[in-house]
Design goal:
- The protein is of the alpha+beta class.
- Among the domains are: 72 residues; 115 residues, endopeptidase fold (from Nostoc punctiforme).
- Helices cover 51% and strands 14% of the residues.
- The chain has six helices and eight strands.
- The chain has a six-stranded antiparallel sheet with strand order 3-8-4-5-6-7. It has a two-stranded parallel ribbon with strand order 1-2.
- Strand 6 and strand 7 form a beta hairpin.
- The longest helix has 92 residues.
- The radius of gyration is 58 Å and the shape is rod-shaped.
Length: 286
Amino acid sequence: MSNAHIRSHRKPRRSSRNTLIRSGVAGGVLTTLAVTGAASPSSADDQASPGDTVELPTLDGLISSGTARAAQATQTIAIRYDVAAAQDQAAEAAQEAAARAKKKARERAEREAAEEAERKAEEAAARARAEERAEQERAEQRRTASRSAERPEVATTSEAATPAPAPAGGSASAIVDFVRAQVGKAYVMGSTGPSAYDCSGLTSAAYKQVGVSLPRTSQAQSTTGTDVPLSQVQPGDILYWGGKGSAYHVAIYVGGGKFVGAQNSGTGVVERDMSWDPPSGAVRVL
């Protein structure tokens, strides 16, 4: 039996989207009717004017509301990006500042290490010079002892009472000749000759040969006469070590960059180059 003329009882399919739309419209209409019915007046006197109507939300309103929310979300995301960028920039700046501080600390440490090395080198050089000076003094002491053993000097009563006779001339050259003649004699604290001297005792005895009386101590002798620059000293000038007025040692400049002085008990009276122990200043008495 042919059933071509019989209609199919299968209902046409409806898309879920159409169903949702229709359901939404129907729901909206029913809701509107319910609100309108509830708000309808019960009598003619309570009827609303033609202008009092309830408007349904329009599609434009929904779109505008969605656009506003989207704009707000975009603005929120942009703010978050700005905050993240600012945080990254701050972190980068902090890293750069830390790197600069580390570099400065390293440079300061290197500079301090170089200064410390230079200071230690200077101290080592000073110790070496002091040791060399001590060795020279010991050698001089050995030579003096050898000469004394070969030709011992015995001071007579008259020598102890009076200094050696003054060389002819009565000038700076006489002072130079006198102190050079004393080289090799002993150093004894408080002695003024003729067989032993201390530093100021030697200078006093030298100037006494030319009729000049000097103060007894090195401190007072450093303030006697006229100040002379070390670059302009002349034979016979008094050299002093230490401060002017508080000098702890004096000697006689003899020319050629040398001086004669009663140095200490180890060396006695010696002649030295000024570079061996540079003096602090000089005074001229004659």
